[in-house]
Amino acid sequence: MAVVAALTVTLVAAEPASATTPAAKKPAAAKTVTSRPDLVSARVTAKAQGSRVEVESLRDETSTTWVNPDGTMTTQAHGGPIRYRDDSGAWRDVDLTMAEAADGTVGPKGHPGRLSLAGATKAAGGVAKGTDETDLAVAKQGKGKHKQDRDVTLGWPGGKLGTPVLSGTTATYKSVKPGVDLVVDARRSGYETHLIINTPQALAALKVDAKGGPVSWSIPVKTKGLTARAEKDGSVSFVDADGQVTSHVAAPVAWDAVVDEHSGNRVNESPVTMTVAQKGAGRAVLTLTPDQGWLLDPSRVFPVTIDPTYAGGGNVGTSFDTYVSSAYSTATYSTATELRVGTYNGGGDKYRSFLSFPLASFKGKDITSASLSLYEFHSWSCTAKPFYVHSTAPTSSSTSWSNQPSPSPTTAWGSASVAKGFSSSCAAGRVSVPITSLIDTWSGASASTGAMRLSASETDSYGWKKFYSVESSQDPYITFTYNRKPNAASAPTMEAAYTPSYVDPRDNLTYLFTTDSTPRFYSKATDPDGSLVRVTFEVHNSTAGTTASKVASCETAAGASGASVDCSPTTALANNTYYYARAAVRDDRGLWNGTWSAWTKFGTAYNTPPAATVSCPGYGNGSWTDTAPTADVVCSIKATGITNDWSTPGYVDLVVDGVAKPRLKVTPTNDPAVVATTVTIPKTAAGAHTIKATAVARTLKPAPATTYSFGWGGASLTLPTAGTASSGKVAIAAGGPPRGTAASVSGKIQWRVAGSGSEATGWTDGPALTVTNNAGSPTLASTDPVKVSGSFALASAVREAGAAADLNSRVPVLLDVQVCFSYAGVSTPQCTWSQTARSVTRVPHAFGNGYPTSDAGPGQVALFTGEFNTSATDVSVPGYSGDLALSRSHTSFDGDGTVAGWPTDPVTGVFGPGWTASLEGPDAGAAGLQVIDNTRTDGTIVLVDEEGEPLVYQTPSKNRAYKVTQTGSAKWPYLPATTDTTAAAADLVITNTTAAPGATMTMTLTEEDGTVTTWAPVAYSATAD
Question: pTM score > 0.70 for this model?
Answer without folding.
Answer: no
